[in-house]
Amino acid sequence: MAGQPIRVVIADDEPLIRAGIRMILTSDPEIEVVAEAANGREAVEATRAHAADVVLLDIQMPVLDGLSALPELRRSAPAARVIVLTTFGERDNVLRTLEHGGAGFLLKDTAPAELIRAVRAAAAGDAYLSPAATRHVVERLAMGREAARAEEARGRVAGLSEKERDVLALLGEGLSNADAGKRLHMSEATVKTYVSRILAKLDCENRVQAALLARDAGL
Questions:
Q1: What's a Pfam family in this record (predicted)?
Q2: Which helix (H) or strand (E) holds 106?
């Protein structure tokens, strides 16, 4: 890209938004706005026609919305880097943007300097997420890890008998053998036997590990 301006297409169905973005971007002498588009279909055509380096793509547009246009842009203009720019910061939109090959995600209240940084980063081949979008991604990844851990825990406890699951659930509540026995109308010795059996089946070293497993499994 050395010596050549970064060629940008702005796709938004609101003329005033496009004008504002154009004004911000053209304040940087190394960025050139080569076309504007009012919908996703126009964005695909303009990107291909002008060999754009970066596309700023709104989500909510007529004819073809931004998230639907993004896969088409990746197919028809694979060299173009797409930044989704929207007022909607829901985490699902962030993830769909990344899943479809988007190079960035910015909210429309992004500061002008950050918008320029994002365009430059995308043109250089880097991904750029606003701080708000980054938080969404981190939260979803954390949720994914929790979901995976819960699925694994459910798989491990699936082999327990109904009574063993009852005992494990009380371990998860932190009950002693004596208190669990009272709740289940068993003797303390019987509960102790169940606990030993549960630890062996679940390959847990102690009742604390078993209690954590019970929590992860949702017992």
A1: GerE
A2: strand 104-107
Model confidence pLDDT, tens digit, residues 21-51: 999 999 999 999 999 999 999 999 999 999 9
CB neighbours of residue 141 within 10 Å? 11
DSSP state of 28: S
pLDDT value at 152 more than 50: yes
> Residue ranges of the alpha helices (H) in 26-78?
40-50, 66-76
Measured in degrees and rounded to the nearest 5, phi and psi for residue 106 equal: -130, 145
Among the listed residues 2, 6, 39, 4, the one whose alpha carbon sits nearest the alpha carbon of residue 121: 6
Handedness of CA 109, 114, 115, 118 (dihedral sign): negative
Q: Is the pTM of this model over 0.70?
A: no
218 three-state secondary structure: coil
Residues 6+ apart with CB under 8 A from 189: none
Mean pLDDT of 76-90: 83
